[in-house]
């Protein structure tokens, strides 16, 4: 059967969702949200550049542009206007006159039929015409500008075809001998690797600095211009471990690279979205260090600082929480970083002399990024339950907004969000959020949706969740729990589900349902459940053990781990946590409980997946759909064409949310 035959067309799949015609948050509002990201200070600390992503309805795709704003909040200006392409990773030149960035726009002379390829461009800081700097055959993945503004350090993939070789009419066969042979967003992995190159801007000359059967990522140029730092995994087979290390190399052809970190575990895994941070005097690098490979993503990653000359690394503040995105103070005596706690992530300052941690942002909020200027000015990118990410200046104990890109939300009637907590049977405190339906009346019970997060080592926090607001506007209470296995509460709490998925976390989920029923809010006869990724895996585990849920939505999940071994991108993680199927049948049986016991599922379930998802491929949803169809349990399968694990097409995002609503309505509001 063809893939397209399995897709239910939006016009025929579900009845029109009936929502109030007032100022509540609707599925159509998803396309109005602006996603603010990547703030970066100009060298003088007076101005910032950042990106804003919005939906382009005409092209039905997400599209990002560059914006500029003064630290005083004045002069907010859109720098690029490219509805057919996107700009990202903005960086200022040393003199503050130019901004370099990545863009997939085409030159006017390029043919329309040619695919857009991401290259490095520049634009005057005050706006104007952009100019392309690079012409790598397969584009640029990442780059960093040299401190003198004369060169770029570039990360690019080995070219697929030798220079001057015409492309064949059809793609050549995919041939691989790699242990990890696929990756979401990168498709199948062969012998081509990502390497570090040096580009002279004036001449256009390109020199390759690294080579070999490994990848280089996250380049960072030292402030004195003498070294480029980057991250790489080495060894006989880098695919088989997570031992990332920091390397440095002089920016010249023929230079020898030098390994800086030696910890036998991950030093700055690119998954953490954090770059190496050089100290102002170019002698140290701040980065993130995890636990040994065995613990994969369960061990909180710590702030580490390494002396580049000696390789001596220290953990200045060894606390049992995750750190993110370190930045140095101007005097080099402290590091600013984001630290995750239960339900929140805040900006903190870490004193390197004594390890003292001082929280700088407070309250129910989620800080996602930051930047620090040479004069110690600080901006934070963050939000809360009712506000998507925006950029704010840190002033004393408060934040001052530098303009808002989602001001229209102030006219919307948003649902209230409150923290809840309870004890599980083992005495652990389980926390989460309760979103009360818009128009909530005390003493009245409501149909209730339990939403489960992905990861598994992740947590729901006080950040704006558009789908929760849509459900609440539609009359649902929403319960978002952080069961054992979640982040934000330390290593021991996270590893409670290590090699034991769908057991203790299921217990916590069911205890959470009992809690909101006792609160008098949830209607025990109208309970729904759902999630995406591990949230879907956990959804399947819950409905296989408890029949109280009248409707479920399971997106991008899996329940037959025998089948996922070698089919998704996590071969290394499977073997580290579960071992191999032929040696550890018991663990694989436990992890595959919902599929092996699908006959115990009575809950009508909507399964969803993305066609090109190598993270959690459609096989997982298809098998569970087929099992319930065989058992005559009401079910439906929806596949989103061409999408990876995280959906990006605006019409698909709206479609998914409207389908979820229609499915829940059908069984919870008959």
UniProtKB/TrEMBL annotation:
SUPFAM superfamilies membership: alpha/beta-Hydrolases, DPP6 N-terminal domain-like
Q: Does the keyword Protease apply?
A: yes
Peptidase S9 prolyl oligopeptidase catalytic domain segment(s): 464-669
Q: Which UniProt keywords apply?
A: Aminopeptidase, Hydrolase, Protease, Serine protease
Task: Give residue spans, biased composition: Polar residues.
Answer: 77-91
Which GO terms of the molecular function aspect are on file?
aminopeptidase activity
The keyword Protease appears for this protein: yes
Give the domain of life.
Answer: Bacteria
Residues covered by region (Disordered): 72-93
Q: Which InterPro entries match?
A: 6-blade_b-propeller_TolB-like (IPR011042), AB_hydrolase_fold (IPR029058), Peptidase_S9_cat (IPR001375), WD40 (IPR011659)
Name this protein carries in UniProt: Dipeptidyl aminopeptidase/acylaminoacyl peptidase
């Amino acid at each position: 059967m063809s893939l397209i035959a399995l897709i239910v067309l939006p016009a025929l799949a579900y009845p029109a969702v009936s929502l109030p015609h007032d100022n509540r948050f609707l599925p159509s509002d998803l396309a109005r949200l602006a996603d603010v990201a990547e703030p970066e200070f100009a060298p003088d600390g007076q101005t910032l550049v950042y990106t804003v992503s919005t939906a382009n309805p005409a092209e039905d795709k997400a599209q990002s542009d560059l914006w500029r704003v003064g630290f005083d909040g004045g002069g907010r200006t859109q720098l690029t206007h490219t509805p057919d392409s996107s700009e990202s990773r903005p960086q200022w030149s040393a003199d503050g006159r130019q901004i370099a960035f990545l863009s997939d726009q085409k030159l006017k002379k390029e043919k329309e039929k040619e695919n857009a390829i991401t290259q490095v461009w520049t634009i005057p800081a005050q706006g104007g015409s952009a100019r392309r700097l690079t012409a790598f055959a397969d584009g640029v993945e990442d780059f960093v500008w040299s401190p003198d503004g004369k060169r770029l350090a570039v990360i690019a993939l080995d070219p697929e075809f030798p220079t001057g070789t015409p492309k064949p009419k059809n793609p050549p066969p995919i041939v691989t001998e790699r242990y990890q042979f696929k990756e979401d967003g990168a498709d199948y992995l062969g012998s081509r690797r990502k390497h570090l190159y040096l580009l002279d801007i004036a001449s256009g000359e390109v020199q390759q600095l690294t080579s070999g059967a490994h990848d280089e990522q996250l380049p960072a140029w030292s402030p004195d211009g003498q070294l480029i730092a980057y991250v790489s995994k080495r060894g006989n087979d880098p695919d088989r471990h997570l031992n990332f290390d920091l390397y440095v190399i002089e920016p010249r052809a023929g230079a020898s690279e030098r390994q800086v970190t030696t910890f036998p575990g991950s030093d700055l895994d690119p998954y953490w979205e954090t770059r190496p941070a050089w100290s102002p005097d170019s002698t140290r690098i701040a980065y993130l260090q995890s636990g040994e490979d065995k613990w994969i993503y369960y061990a909180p990653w710590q702030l580490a600082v390494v002396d580049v000359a000696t390789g001596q690394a220290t953990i200045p503040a060894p606390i049992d929480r995750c750190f993110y995105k370190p930045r140095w103070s101007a005097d080099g005596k402290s590091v600013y970083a984001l630290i995750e706690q239960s339900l929140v992530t805040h900006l903190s300052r870490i004193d390197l002399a004594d390890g003292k941690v001082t929280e700088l942002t407070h309250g129910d909020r989620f800080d996602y990024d930051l930047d620090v200027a040479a004069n110690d000015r600080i901006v934070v990118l963050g939000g809360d339950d009712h506000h998507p990410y925006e950029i704010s200046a840190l002033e004393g104990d408060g934040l001052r907004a530098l303009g808002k890109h989602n001001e229209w939300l102030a006219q919307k009637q948003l649902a209230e969000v409150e923290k809840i907590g309870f004890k599980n049977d083992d005495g652990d405190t389980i926390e989460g959020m309760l979103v009360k339906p818009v128009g909530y009346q005390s003493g009245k019970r409501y149909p209730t949706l339990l939403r489960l997060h992905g990861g598994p080592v992740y947590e729901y926090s006080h950040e704006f969740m558009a789908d929760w607001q849509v459900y609440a506007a539609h009359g649902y209470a929403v319960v978002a729990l952080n069961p054992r296995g979640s982040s934000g509460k330390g290593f021991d709490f996270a590893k409670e589900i290590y090699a034991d998925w769908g057991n203790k976390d299921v217990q916590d989920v069911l205890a959470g349902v009992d809690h909101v029923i006792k609160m008098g809010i949830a209607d025990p006869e109208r309970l729904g459940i759902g999630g995406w990724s591990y949230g879907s895996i956990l959804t399947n585990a819950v409905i296989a053990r408890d029949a109280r849920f009248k409707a479920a939505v399971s997106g991008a999940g899996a329940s037959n781990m025998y089948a996922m071994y070698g089919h998704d991108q996590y071969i290394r993680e499977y073997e580290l946590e579960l071992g191999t199927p032929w040696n550890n049948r018991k663990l694989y049986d436990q992890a595959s409980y919902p599929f092996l016991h699908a006959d115990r599922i009575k809950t009508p379930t909507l399964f969803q997946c993305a066609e090109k998802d190598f993270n959690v491929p459609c096989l997982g949803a298809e098998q569970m759909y087929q099992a319930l169809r065989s058992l005559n349990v009401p079910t439906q399968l929806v596949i989103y064409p061409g999408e990876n694990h995280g959906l990006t097409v605006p019409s698909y995002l709206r479609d998914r949310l409207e389908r979820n609503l229609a499915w829940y309505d059908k069984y919870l509001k008959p």
